[in-house]
Write a structure and sequence with these properties.
By secondary structure, this protein is mainly beta. Helices cover about 0% and strands about 55% of the residues. A hairpin with a 5-residue loop joins strand 19 (about 195-200) and strand 20. The two termini are about 25 Å apart.
């Protein structure tokens, strides 16, 4: 296993999620800063929009229109002309705060949710993975997931892999022509590691942010860990491959406990590492 190092890139955020490399910029949700941001390669930042009910997952429709999850009201919004436009109301289907998001090339959006109120200490329970069509119609496409989190599309869009955080695994599904999921199987068992945000490289390796262990890991199907990055005592929240050549791994970290996430202190930052294999563009 090869060990890599990360270096600070930008800081001053509350709690970051949903990193996406899009058209030369790194898009981010500051969940408890209640805003979506975009960062240039030189670190310059632009606030894209405020999201009062807590932003999380980000994606882009085929025409480039951004989508963003609004967690607390369990909605998915389009960002147009500096305003939030409702894309889909997921409150009837989501049993917890809506979290990460994956948008496929056809504009279909897969959305996970917590399943329970983790910050208030509710008892854990499984939940569903939702699919939202480009016209905003939502349906359940997978059931009984344990805290579904980051997602990627592999194999030319034929396989969806989702991190089940508190089941300590990555699970894979076959993707049908209409976006339906079937053939659930284990992509990788991760032992003690709690996978949060993930991203895919061109060699079909998946970079995993292991939240509770404070490490970023490159994992292959079957569970082999090929690379590891120690976050230096900070939480590893999510990661995204990007940069000019696709070989910069942007790592979102947080210096606090689970119960400090909602405190509002500016304890989150973006760090970066150089890696061997470029990103595959997912998420």
């Amino acid at each position: 296993m090869q060990k890599l190092a990360i270096a600070p890139f930008v800081d001053g955020f509350a709690f970051l999620e949903g990193p996406r490399w899009h058209r030369g910029r790194l898009w981010l949700s500051d969940m408890w800063g209640l805003a979506v941001w975009a960062l240039r390669a030189d670190g310059a930042r632009e606030k894209i929009i405020d999201v009062p009910q807590r932003p999380s997952g980000i994606g882009f429709l085929p025409d480039g229109t951004p989508l963003v999850v609004s967690m607390a009201d369990r909605r998915l919004y389009r960002i147009r002309s500096g305003a939030l436009e409702l894309h889909a109301d997921l409150s009837r289907l989501a049993s917890g705060d809506v979290n990460d998001l994956l948008v496929d090339p056809q504009g279909r959006a897969y959305a996970g949710n917590f399943g329970y109120d983790i910050l208030r200490g509710e008892a854990p329970r499984p939940t569903d993975l939702l699919l939202v069509t480009p016209d905003g119609v939502a349906r359940v496409v997978a059931r009984d997931l344990v805290f579904p989190n980051g997602m990627v599309l592999a194999d030319g869009g034929r396989t969806l892999v989702v991190a089940e955080t508190f089941a300590h695994r990555l699970s894979a599904f076959d993707v049908a022509a209409d976006g339906a999921l079937s053939g659930r199987r284990e992509f990788a068992a991760l032992g003690e590691y709690t996978p949060d945000g993930i991203c895919l490289d061109r060699a079909r390796g998946i970079w995993v942010a292991a939240f509770e262990q404070g490490e970023f890991l490159r994992v292959e199907e079957g569970g082999k860990i090929t690379h590891a990055i120690d976050a230096g005592g900070r939480r590893a929240v999510a990661c995204q491959l990007g940069g000019e050549d696709g070989r910069t791994l942007f790592c979102l970290t947080f210096d606090g406990t689970l119960h400090e996430i909602s405190g509002g202190a500016r304890k989150a930052r973006v760090e970066s590492a150089r890696v061997e294999t470029a990103g595959a563009g997912s998420p």
